[in-house]
Each structure stands twice: as structure tokens, then as C-alpha cells.
Amino acid sequence: MTEHPAYATLRPVTRYASVLLAHNPSPMTLEGTNTWVVGEPDAVGRVVIDPGPEDAEHLRRVADHGPVSLVLLTHHHGDHTDGVERFVELTGAPVRALDPALCRGAAPLRDGEVIEAGGLELRVLATAGHTADSVCFAVDHDEPAVFTGDSVLGRGTTVVAHPDGHLGSYLDSLRRLADLPEGMRVLPGHGPDLPDVRAIATHYLRHRNQRLDQVRAALADLGPGATPRQVVELVYADVDRAVWPAADLTVRAQLTYLQEAK
């Protein structure tokens, strides 16, 4: 069986979900963006979750596994959405997202809504935090799974990028994911799939609280006037400096959270 990462290949993960990995690797996208092609084997149409970057070859490969009846977006970041306009041209499929500005020929998503497409029912979970418009899609049947976008990654942890990202909202979203049934598979926007969303969301919560404790300790050491960069240099000293700009945004979100908690 093909394993992650596998470029230019539709990799089956569950009976109803396969993934095409875009060739846009970076410190922020890991091996690249996962574009999910979703539908029961006997269904006529397919749902595509996050067409990915504006990469003509990748978009054509995804479209070739249609017909595509619906496009769903987990959030607005360009590595997930820059290819939408071209993909709509290729497939004619409507596009739905939480943000109305991203929709094409269809209504915005609603939290708790159940979408019937591709022979499946996909339940919309608003999971703000990574971005204000982040959503996940849960499949609650005999092979349960949740498409997590960037709310949960297959490897490492997610950036909460101030000011669009909000740590308090993200912690609430992680608690919501941690309340999902045990054994629900994670089908993420980046990295390999994981076996249990409850376990990984619980791990994320523990990690976030540990980082907050480290930020509190750094502020006690540096003083209340410490800059985000000074905090990054202490708290994220073990992290690749290539992602320090993202860590800076996360620290800003952490400092905002601590200020709001006072």
C-alpha cells in the first residue's frame, strides 16, 4: 500500500477517502498540501476538500478523479485555496467555505450542518483558532474520520498566527475535537493520516498548555516589556529557525491570550 508522502499518486486512506499530495513542500506545509478526494466507491460524484495551490498539473490530476460535485475548503490560506479558480474552470463544481468570499455558486458553511455528497454525510465543525474561518469535516459512520485541515496536522503542531489566529478559540476547538469518539481517524491538511483524533487533540492541548507555562516563565525572566522575538528566542530555542517568523506570530497569540485571561 502506498504511504505518505506520495506525489502525483492518488493514495487511498479509507474506503471513501483518498489523497493527492501537492508538490509544495516547505517548513510551513511539511511535505506539501493534502488534497482529499472523497466519496463512496459507488457514488457518481466526488467531493474535493482543499484543491491546493495554483499548480496546473496537480489540479488536473485531482480533476481527473472526478466528476467533482462539490469543493469544500477548510480555511482561506493560499496553499489550500490558490488553485480554486482554476479548479472551478476544470470541473464546474460549486465551492463552499465558512467565509462567504471564498464560496462559488453555493452558500457558506454552517457549524453543525450535515452535507450530503459523494454518498456520504459530512458534518461541519467550526474550529476557529489556526484561522478565524477554520473548519473540519467529520464522517460519523462505520469508518469514522475527520478532515482537519490545519487545525490538526499529521506531524508537528499548528501555527496560531496572530491576529487572524486566536489561541483561546483554538483551545476551545481542540477541546471540541478531543470530545469526538475514540478511534476517529485524522485526515489532515498536511502530513500523514493519524489513527485517533481524540488522542492527538488531547496531546495538542497538553503541548499548548506547556508552551503557555514556558511563556509565563519567559516573561517572569525577561520582564513585562519583553518583545515577542525575545520570547521566541527563549521558548522556541529548540525549533528550526526557519519557522521562527511563524513562532513569532504564535507568541503574539499567546501574549494576547495571557492578557485576555487577566
Automatic annotation (TrEMBL):
Domain Metallo-beta-lactamase residues, every copy: 32-190
Pfam families: Lactamase_B, WHD_BLACT
Domain of life, per lineage: Bacteria
SMART domains referenced in this protein's UniProt entry, alphabetically: Lactamase_B (SM00849)
Protein name (database record): Glyoxylase, beta-lactamase superfamily II
Naturally occurring in which organism (per UniProt): Saccharopolyspora kobensis
